[in-house]
Amino acid sequence: xxxxxxxxxxVLSGFWLFLAYLxxxxxxxxxxxxxxxxxxxxxxxxxxxxxxxxxxxERRDAGAPSCIGNVLWLVLAGWxxxxxxVVTGVxxxxxxxxxxxxxxNFxxxxxxxxxxxxxxxxxxxxxxxxx
Length: 131
Known about the structure:
By secondary structure, this protein is mostly helical. The protein has one domain (1-129). It has helices spanning 2-28, 35-49, 64-92, 99-107, 109-113; strands spanning 54-58, 118-122. The protein has a two-stranded antiparallel ribbon with strand order 1-2. The mean pLDDT is 87. Residues 4-54, 68-118 form the Inner membrane component domain. This is YccF domain-containing protein. Keywords: Membrane, Transmembrane, Transmembrane helix. Pfam families: YccF.
């Protein structure tokens, strides 16, 4: 079932969101300071490309640097990517078939706003992150 949902997601919105994260990551990687943010954008882009069957968990070893990085991320790219999720989610919720995919878009908004200090794990092992 996860595969079917992921394929439909890929066609309806996943590919375009992946391209948005790819563009944001490429722009952020232009400077040396932006490389960690670009890597985070690429990581979330892969998650946005194929989200069903995976989830995000908070990393316990993430400290103050990830908090500061999240503030910078929010200003540099977070708002625009979250806005893309909101618009795509609303458009998908217009049809009955698209409602689960719209809800999945809304669930990606917190990750797009504050990605640092989070880890993407399979849904069958949500607590297998590093402690």
